[in-house]
Write a structure and sequence with these properties.
This protein has about 230 residues and is an alpha/beta fold. The chain is built from six helices and nine strands; from the N terminus they run βββαββαβαααβαββ. α3 packs across α4 and α3 packs parallel to α5.
Protein backbone atom coordinates (compact mmCIF):
# COMPACT_ATOMS: atom_id res chain seq x y z
CA UNK A 1 0.00 0.00 0.00
CA UNK A 2 1.21 3.51 -0.77
CA UNK A 3 0.06 7.03 0.16
CA UNK A 4 1.49 9.84 -1.96
CA UNK A 5 1.15 13.60 -1.42
CA UNK A 6 2.26 16.07 -4.07
CA UNK A 7 2.66 19.79 -3.39
CA UNK A 8 -0.14 19.99 -0.84
CA UNK A 9 -1.15 23.47 0.23
CA UNK A 10 -3.79 24.47 2.77
CA UNK A 11 -4.97 28.00 3.51
CA UNK A 12 -6.99 29.24 6.50
CA UNK A 13 -8.18 32.85 6.69
CA UNK A 14 -5.70 33.90 4.03
CA UNK A 15 -2.76 32.26 5.83
CA UNK A 16 -0.73 29.39 4.36
CA UNK A 17 -0.91 26.60 6.95
CA UNK A 18 0.71 24.04 4.67
CA UNK A 19 2.98 24.92 1.77
CA UNK A 20 4.06 22.50 -0.96
CA UNK A 21 4.15 19.38 1.22
CA UNK A 22 5.15 16.22 -0.65
CA UNK A 23 5.91 12.69 0.53
CA UNK A 24 5.55 9.06 -0.45
CA UNK A 25 4.67 6.58 2.32
CA UNK A 26 4.61 2.80 1.97
CA UNK A 27 3.60 -0.13 4.17
CA UNK A 28 6.23 -0.74 6.83
CA UNK A 29 7.37 2.89 6.71
CA UNK A 30 7.59 5.21 9.71
CA UNK A 31 7.14 8.92 9.10
CA UNK A 32 7.82 11.62 11.68
CA UNK A 33 6.09 14.93 10.92
CA UNK A 34 7.95 17.72 12.70
CA UNK A 35 7.42 21.45 13.09
CA UNK A 36 6.58 24.07 15.66
CA UNK A 37 3.06 24.41 17.05
CA UNK A 38 0.73 25.95 14.48
CA UNK A 39 2.74 24.82 11.45
CA UNK A 40 0.09 22.43 10.15
CA UNK A 41 1.00 19.02 11.55
CA UNK A 42 -2.56 18.22 12.65
CA UNK A 43 -3.97 19.68 9.44
CA UNK A 44 -1.78 17.35 7.38
CA UNK A 45 -3.02 14.35 9.37
CA UNK A 46 -6.63 15.44 8.82
CA UNK A 47 -6.00 15.65 5.08
CA UNK A 48 -4.46 12.17 5.06
CA UNK A 49 -7.54 10.83 6.88
CA UNK A 50 -9.85 12.54 4.38
CA UNK A 51 -11.36 14.86 7.00
CA UNK A 52 -10.20 17.88 5.00
CA UNK A 53 -9.18 18.51 1.40
CA UNK A 54 -6.02 20.22 0.21
CA UNK A 55 -6.59 23.59 -1.44
CA UNK A 56 -3.78 22.90 -3.89
CA UNK A 57 -2.03 19.64 -4.73
CA UNK A 58 -3.00 15.98 -4.71
CA UNK A 59 -3.17 13.03 -2.33
CA UNK A 60 -3.58 9.40 -3.30
CA UNK A 61 -3.97 6.06 -1.56
CA UNK A 62 -2.79 3.35 -3.93
CA UNK A 63 -4.30 4.43 -7.28
CA UNK A 64 -7.17 6.54 -5.89
CA UNK A 65 -6.34 10.25 -5.95
CA UNK A 66 -7.99 13.49 -4.87
CA UNK A 67 -6.52 16.53 -6.59
CA UNK A 68 -7.16 20.25 -6.44
CA UNK A 69 -5.17 22.45 -8.77
CA UNK A 70 -6.06 26.13 -8.93
CA UNK A 71 -3.10 26.88 -11.19
CA UNK A 72 -1.32 30.24 -11.57
CA UNK A 73 -2.63 33.63 -12.52
CA UNK A 74 -1.17 36.06 -15.05
CA UNK A 75 1.30 37.33 -12.47
CA UNK A 76 2.72 33.83 -12.09
CA UNK A 77 1.34 33.48 -8.56
CA UNK A 78 -0.88 30.69 -7.32
CA UNK A 79 -4.51 31.61 -7.86
CA UNK A 80 -6.28 30.34 -4.76
CA UNK A 81 -9.68 30.60 -6.39
CA UNK A 82 -11.49 32.22 -3.47
CA UNK A 83 -15.25 32.39 -3.66
CA UNK A 84 -17.47 35.29 -2.59
CA UNK A 85 -17.15 34.23 1.04
CA UNK A 86 -13.37 34.53 0.83
CA UNK A 87 -12.84 30.79 1.13
CA UNK A 88 -10.99 28.42 -1.18
CA UNK A 89 -13.33 26.93 -3.75
CA UNK A 90 -12.47 23.24 -4.04
CA UNK A 91 -16.08 22.25 -4.54
CA UNK A 92 -16.21 21.39 -8.25
CA UNK A 93 -18.13 18.24 -9.06
CA UNK A 94 -14.96 16.50 -10.28
CA UNK A 95 -13.09 17.29 -7.06
CA UNK A 96 -16.04 16.18 -4.93
CA UNK A 97 -16.20 12.92 -6.88
CA UNK A 98 -12.49 12.27 -6.40
CA UNK A 99 -12.78 13.07 -2.69
CA UNK A 100 -15.60 10.53 -2.33
CA UNK A 101 -13.49 7.94 -4.14
CA UNK A 102 -10.58 8.65 -1.80
CA UNK A 103 -12.83 8.29 1.25
CA UNK A 104 -14.23 5.03 -0.14
CA UNK A 105 -10.68 3.72 -0.52
CA UNK A 106 -9.87 4.71 3.06
CA UNK A 107 -12.96 2.94 4.38
CA UNK A 108 -11.57 -0.32 3.04
CA UNK A 109 -8.53 0.12 5.26
CA UNK A 110 -8.11 -0.18 9.01
CA UNK A 111 -6.82 3.02 10.62
CA UNK A 112 -5.68 3.40 14.21
CA UNK A 113 -5.69 6.99 15.45
CA UNK A 114 -4.71 8.80 18.64
CA UNK A 115 -5.62 12.48 18.42
CA UNK A 116 -4.15 15.25 20.58
CA UNK A 117 -7.31 14.93 22.66
CA UNK A 118 -7.54 11.43 24.13
CA UNK A 119 -11.24 11.09 23.24
CA UNK A 120 -11.84 8.29 25.71
CA UNK A 121 -15.17 7.20 27.17
CA UNK A 122 -14.54 8.71 30.58
CA UNK A 123 -17.14 6.84 32.60
CA UNK A 124 -15.77 3.39 31.81
CA UNK A 125 -12.40 1.80 32.50
CA UNK A 126 -9.33 1.46 30.29
CA UNK A 127 -10.14 -2.14 29.40
CA UNK A 128 -13.57 -1.23 28.09
CA UNK A 129 -12.13 1.70 26.12
CA UNK A 130 -9.76 -0.64 24.31
CA UNK A 131 -12.43 -3.24 23.64
CA UNK A 132 -14.95 -0.73 22.27
CA UNK A 133 -12.63 0.16 19.40
CA UNK A 134 -11.04 -3.26 18.92
CA UNK A 135 -14.04 -5.44 18.19
CA UNK A 136 -13.60 -9.06 19.24
CA UNK A 137 -10.88 -8.25 21.77
CA UNK A 138 -11.27 -10.27 24.95
CA UNK A 139 -10.76 -8.73 28.37
CA UNK A 140 -7.59 -10.78 28.72
CA UNK A 141 -6.19 -9.38 25.47
CA UNK A 142 -6.98 -5.82 26.49
CA UNK A 143 -5.34 -6.33 29.90
CA UNK A 144 -2.23 -7.77 28.25
CA UNK A 145 -1.83 -4.79 25.92
CA UNK A 146 -2.58 -2.14 28.53
CA UNK A 147 -0.24 -3.70 31.08
CA UNK A 148 2.71 -2.92 28.84
CA UNK A 149 2.27 0.81 29.54
CA UNK A 150 0.13 1.01 32.70
CA UNK A 151 -0.04 -0.50 36.15
CA UNK A 152 -2.58 -3.31 36.16
CA UNK A 153 -4.19 -1.85 39.31
CA UNK A 154 -5.33 1.15 37.26
CA UNK A 155 -6.96 -0.74 34.39
CA UNK A 156 -10.38 -1.18 36.01
CA UNK A 157 -10.78 2.40 37.22
CA UNK A 158 -12.93 4.87 35.26
CA UNK A 159 -10.50 6.71 33.01
CA UNK A 160 -11.86 10.00 34.39
CA UNK A 161 -9.91 9.18 37.57
CA UNK A 162 -6.62 8.57 35.76
CA UNK A 163 -3.90 11.16 35.22
CA UNK A 164 -3.47 12.86 31.87
CA UNK A 165 -0.39 10.80 31.09
CA UNK A 166 -2.22 7.56 31.88
CA UNK A 167 -5.13 8.54 29.64
CA UNK A 168 -2.65 9.34 26.87
CA UNK A 169 -1.24 5.82 27.09
CA UNK A 170 -4.73 4.28 27.09
CA UNK A 171 -5.56 6.12 23.87
CA UNK A 172 -2.32 4.90 22.27
CA UNK A 173 -2.96 1.28 23.24
CA UNK A 174 -6.52 1.58 21.94
CA UNK A 175 -5.20 2.81 18.58
CA UNK A 176 -2.60 0.13 17.93
CA UNK A 177 -3.49 -2.93 20.02
CA UNK A 178 -4.84 -4.61 16.87
CA UNK A 179 -3.16 -4.77 13.47
CA UNK A 180 -3.98 -1.80 11.18
CA UNK A 181 -3.07 -0.62 7.70
CA UNK A 182 -2.40 2.95 8.83
CA UNK A 183 -1.50 4.38 12.24
CA UNK A 184 -1.82 8.09 12.97
CA UNK A 185 -0.54 9.58 16.23
CA UNK A 186 -0.82 13.32 16.86
CA UNK A 187 1.64 14.42 19.58
CA UNK A 188 1.49 10.99 21.29
CA UNK A 189 4.09 11.91 23.93
CA UNK A 190 2.28 14.99 25.20
CA UNK A 191 2.03 14.83 28.98
CA UNK A 192 4.58 12.00 29.30
CA UNK A 193 7.94 12.24 31.02
CA UNK A 194 10.98 11.13 29.06
CA UNK A 195 11.05 7.58 30.46
CA UNK A 196 7.36 6.95 29.70
CA UNK A 197 7.72 8.61 26.30
CA UNK A 198 10.55 6.26 25.41
CA UNK A 199 8.62 3.21 26.65
CA UNK A 200 5.54 4.32 24.72
CA UNK A 201 7.60 4.88 21.56
CA UNK A 202 8.98 1.34 21.83
CA UNK A 203 5.44 -0.01 22.16
CA UNK A 204 4.29 1.96 19.11
CA UNK A 205 7.30 0.80 17.10
CA UNK A 206 6.63 -2.85 17.94
CA UNK A 207 2.86 -2.77 17.38
CA UNK A 208 2.86 -0.87 14.08
CA UNK A 209 5.16 -3.12 12.10
CA UNK A 210 3.81 -3.72 8.62
CA UNK A 211 1.53 -0.68 8.55
CA UNK A 212 2.17 2.94 7.61
CA UNK A 213 2.91 5.03 10.70
CA UNK A 214 2.49 8.81 10.75
CA UNK A 215 3.55 10.50 13.98
CA UNK A 216 3.74 14.21 14.81
CA UNK A 217 5.84 15.90 17.44
CA UNK A 218 7.42 19.24 18.29
CA UNK A 219 9.77 17.60 20.82
CA UNK A 220 13.07 17.44 18.97
CA UNK A 221 15.25 16.63 21.97
CA UNK A 222 13.92 13.04 22.07
CA UNK A 223 16.13 12.07 19.12
CA UNK A 224 16.83 8.58 20.42
CA UNK A 225 13.10 7.82 20.42
CA UNK A 226 12.71 8.50 16.72
CA UNK A 227 15.42 6.30 15.23
CA UNK A 228 14.42 4.78 11.91
CA UNK A 229 11.80 7.41 11.08
CA UNK A 230 11.76 9.30 7.81
CA UNK A 231 11.33 12.99 8.58
CA UNK A 232 8.61 15.12 7.00
CA UNK A 233 9.63 18.65 8.00
CA UNK A 234 6.94 21.36 7.85
Amino acid sequence: MKIVAENIKKIYDGKDVLQNVSFSAESGGRYLITGASGEGKTTLLRIIMGLEMPDVGSLSVDDISVKTDTGKNDAGKIDTGKNDAGKIDTGTEDVKKKHKEYLTALKKLSIGTAFQEDRLCENVDAITNVRIVNKGFSEEEAVRELSVLLNENDLRKPVSTLSGGMCRRVSIVRACAASRNIYIFDEPFSGLDKDNAKKTAEYIREKTKGGILFLTTHIEEYNEIFGGFEIIKL
